[in-house]
Amino acid sequence: MSRNVTFLALSSSFRSLETSLHSSVTQLPSGTSNPRWLTLPLASPSTTLLENSSYKLKTQKLSNKIFSNIRPDAFQLVGHPFGKKLFGDHSLIFMFGEDHKSVRRQVAPNFTRQPLSAYSSLQQIVILRHLRQWEECFSSGSRPVSMRQLIRELNLETSQTVFVGPYLNEEVKNTIRTDYNVFNPGTMALPIDLPGFTFGEARRAVSRLVNTMAVCVVKSKAKMAAGENPTCLVDFWTHSIIGENPPPPHSKDEEISCVLVDFLFASQDASTSSLLWAVVLLESEPEVLRRVREEVARVWSPESNELITADQLAEMKYTRAVAREVLRYRPPASMVPHVAVCDFRLTESYTIPKGTIVFPSLFDASFQGFTEPDRFDPDRFNETRQEDQVFKRNFLTFGIGSHQCVGQRYSMNHLVLFIAMFSSMFDFKRVRSDGCDEIVHCPTMSPKDGCTVFLSSRVVTSP
Q1: CB 3.0 to 4.6 Å from 55: which of 38, 308, 347, 360, for a disulfide?
Q2: Any bridge partners for residue 57, and if so which?
Q3: Coiled-coil regions in this chain (predicted)?
Q4: Residue 462 maps to a domain
């Protein structure tokens, strides 16, 4: 779950910007010598909409420079051209300076060892429940199924359960699902805030989601004040602040609920992308799949009626390398839009003008520096090669610096657990068609066909 990835559920305006950036490279600014650095200001409807010049930075060095200078006198995240209106004033996405530091200090402890262990059990219960449903519905292998919607539903329930699970009944879960499905298209719509228009309906859906989460926060605070043990993310959060007097900044019910909605958005769309690409890449790399299955089988079996323990998860080093390579090879989002707050000297020969929209490219950075970067190669992250350390400034999926993803360990665990369980429980064969592997944004990066596969069960029973 990534602060950066949250910002990257890009609007259709930003996606058309990206398309134009790739297709309309012209004369570079005076004094700029390397055409790989950036593509030029656009003359397109998107430029008119954003009322600013726009640049895409294609080298990891320049992308890192932007990420390292997110501050009031340099760059701020844009995330979405009308995002603050959509997400609200208390959204972590649009916090900077001391406000951001204050919330991050409250949030960070919720992604340490003890909470992550509790989340892992909840994640596995939800993953296994969905995998069993897939077994019942699709494992005969008689008809193909598009994985995107299945994985999307799995992720939405996982997020609900981990974040606020004890405080939701089925009716509220369905309400969240409905509101989320209304809200999501609003990230790709023009900002017409009227009834019947996608953006307006999305903004009202966000308000309802915030109100729903605020009720959960109230219940959690009461439960923690009564001395009960935390069982989900909001419990760990409220448990850490319940005794403070005065309460820390940004810890009112609505303020916490807004951040929970940010988390819901980030974990939902980013994880859907990652899990989809994991299936695509495992199916296309039989040797990688074989090694994953062998490693998992040494420590866990779906027929054991047991969940994967923290120690067993730690033993799955190759599976974790596969997960990391999935994120490198197909990061959930391709770019992170920022705006220059003032003139910023990007290089010795070029200054970014104030108000310019800048797009550091996670995707391009992922294919620079690494050994044979166009090859899907999980072994690059083994203890011998350690390319995650050698080229760590090229691996930007979770961001860098003070604004890097606070939930990256949670996100990584989710991907590893899914890979381990899915590959152990299913054989799967991709239905290939023209352009099926083309990248589309909906809103994060996905294969064009939604990853259509035939599924067949590999096990008799599962826990």
Answers
A1: 38
A2: 38, 360
A3: none
A4: no
